[in-house]
Amino acid sequence: MKIPRIKINPNFDWALIIIPVILTVCSLATLYSISSFAGNLSLVWDQAVYFGIGIVAYIVFTMLDYRETKNYVWYLYVIGLVFLILVDLLGMQIFGSRRWISLGFFQFQPSELMKVFLLIFAASYFSAKENLRPLRIVFFLIAALVPVYLVFKEPDLGTALTIIVMLVVALVQAGTPKKYLIYGFLVLLVASPFVWLKLQPYQKTRVISFMEPSSDPLGSGYNVSQSKIAVGSGGLYGKGFGNATQSQLRFLPIAQIDFIFSGWAEATGFIGSLVMVAAFGILIVRIFIVSSVSRDRFGMIFAAGVGAVILFQSFVNIGMNIGIMPVTGIPLPFVSAGGTSYIVNAIFLGMTQSIYIRRKGLRFE
How does pLDDT run across 103-114, given as a tens digit for each residue? Predict the structure, then answer.
């Protein structure tokens, strides 16, 4: 019997492989530094497991022809909506938000999955140029804003903003006429006071504390103050892993997710912080390059959306760690602890790699 052979174009974008691994190693080292003082390394082991699952997801979606996902776009959209509705009805409440569904052995966050589903939906929808007509753009916006509202209602302002930024970039990349983008911006501007009224009290307090940190230094402003102290105390070379007092002694709340960059900066200093920022910069540039060399509109729009997600999340997370952005609970891609977020980012990059490989064609035999 003849053994089937798989011929794969070896022309990978190695930045899409190496940099996520580097960021994951940074994550594991920081989580170890945070956890070692208490002697509980469960965060490290959990993240290592997510790393393994992420590798499998990355390989699967790299081998998968990204264009095949267009055949399932409406199924994915409906599945995503069902999960978001189930969160509202049956979801677990943690830190005042109902964002997770528990499967017993694993808790997953449907809003993270919806990022993938909506980006596939947007890329597929606008791969047909005729869908840039006004009424069809309106239909797309209605279909997109329904899940955005459900995510915002959890409440999960950070993920809702990430999805909005992702969809705006997809619209721009698709070639939406500028006048429609301006109209959309004006609508968002008019709607912003109503969004403010719908924010939870703690969310409003975070924004106020960002504008005036001294307004509540022991309350909402405490997190940012401690984060800035941790970043500054790292100095040029850092205190080393296991010696970072701010993160180890729990001065930093939720140090494994929201403020993990502060833990990394305290341990590795300015040099280590610069290395991480540079890694994100290279990764984001490479993703947008993949968008530019894609052989079709679907790949072009999808990769641009992935670049927007990674750029927005890394900028906001690092920004809130150093006090230039309000605290929104947005995780740092591949660095913050969390299973669903890590796996979703792996899927994003796997599909981006698939787009890059297939710019010249790929045959499976």
Answer: 766 777 888 999
Angle between helical axes of 222-233 and 297-321 (0-180°, round to 10): 90
**How distant, in Å, are the alpha carbons of 3, 71, 74, 271, 332 from that of 315?**
48, 33, 31, 18, 9
Domain ranges of the chain: 15-357
Comparing C-alpha atoms, which of 221, 230, 222 is closest to residue 33? Answer: 230
Element (H, E) at 285: helix 260-293
- Residue labelled with tokens 């007092």: 245
For helices 15-36 and 42-63, angle between their N-to-C axes, nearest 10 degrees: 170
What type of residue is 194?
A: F
Count of CB atoms situated within 10 Å of the CB of 345: 26
State CA 35 to chain mean position distance: 24
SS3 category, 107? strand
Q: What is the DSSP letter of 331?
A: P
Q: How many residues does the chain have?
A: 365
- Contacting residues for 224 by C-beta, under 8 A, at least 6 apart: 209, 210, 213, 320, 323, 327
Q: Which of 344, 337, 338 is nearest to 106 (CA)?
A: 338
Global pTM reads 0.87
Q: Per DSSP, which regions of the chain are E strands?
A: 92-94, 97-102, 107-108
Token pair recorded at residue 24: 């994951």
Query: CB of 238 within 8 A of CB of 255?
Result: no
- Distance separating alpha carbons of residues 205 and 216, to the nearest angstrom: 9
Residues 6+ away with beta carbon under 8 Å from 287: 16, 303, 306, 307, 310, 349, 352
90 alpha-carbon distance from chain centroid:
24
Per residue in 259-302, pLDDT (tens digit) is: 889 889 888 999 999 999 999 999 999 999 999 999 899 999 99
Q: Residue 1: which residues within 8 A CB-CB, separation 6 or more? A: none
Strand order from edge to edge, sheet including 97-102: 92-94, 97-102, 107-108
